[in-house]
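User: I'm putting together a teaching handout on how multi-component assemblies are represented. Below are the sequence lines for each component of a complex, exactly as they appear in our records. Could you produce the 3D structure of the whole assembly as structure tokens, so the students can see both representations side by side? Please keep the chain order the same as the input.
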Amino acid sequence: EPEVTQTPSHQVTQMGQEVILRCVPISNHLYFYWYRQILGQKVEFLVSFYNNEISEKSEIFDDQFSVERPDGSNFTLKIRSTKLEDSAMYFCASSYLAGGGYNEQFFGPGTRLTVL
Amino acid sequence: AQSVTQLGSHVSVSEGALVLLRCNYSSSVPPYLFWYVQYPNQGLQLLLKYTTGATLVKGINGFEAEFKKSETSFHLTKPSAHMSDAAEYFCAVRRVTGNQFYFGTGTSLTVIP
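Assistant: Of course. Below is the structure of the complete assembly, with chains in the same order as your input.
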């Protein structure tokens, strides 16, 4: 069964460093998403991406964040200068459609980011 | 604005007992409603969803949920808990138009042998 994969599973970085989290969405999906979950808190939407551009983003997704689909398979989230409060589990998701009742988003296993 | 409230961050049930996980939403119009399950070290897996039609929806692993518009609720139930049901459960809503999910804070289910 096709699945969303994410690498690495755990990333440790120093405050101020840049990190890139990688995701491989399901191959025929067209819409891509990033969510994050700070420990003990709810899963929060960051951004959605379609046709090589951001379609929606939350207030969390500030100028420190960027997303890219550098090739036909990967979808990346870059944090330019990490802060302690960026420590969280980051989930990638993808869907074939958007909107409507049949838009099921498939989630990856997450990347745990720890900022020291 | 959309929001989701899950009552009870931790729920414990005995094996074979009824599972009831509560979810209430706040939305100006009825949204689409979802329950996801997260097993340790795994991603979010869709259990079931309500979009239109029958308000009682059945999902995987024997779970079901009922959309009650008058109560703005979408509680998750399972008649008989199994040890393998121990996991984190998230209720989520999505606007009918739009892609953004709004998740609750999650309920950790423990099943006692």
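A couple of points students might notice: The interface with chain B takes residues 4, 6, 9, 31, 33, 35, 41-45, 48, 55-56, 58, 91, 93, 95, 98-110 of chain A (CB under 8 Å). The mean pLDDT of chain A is 91.
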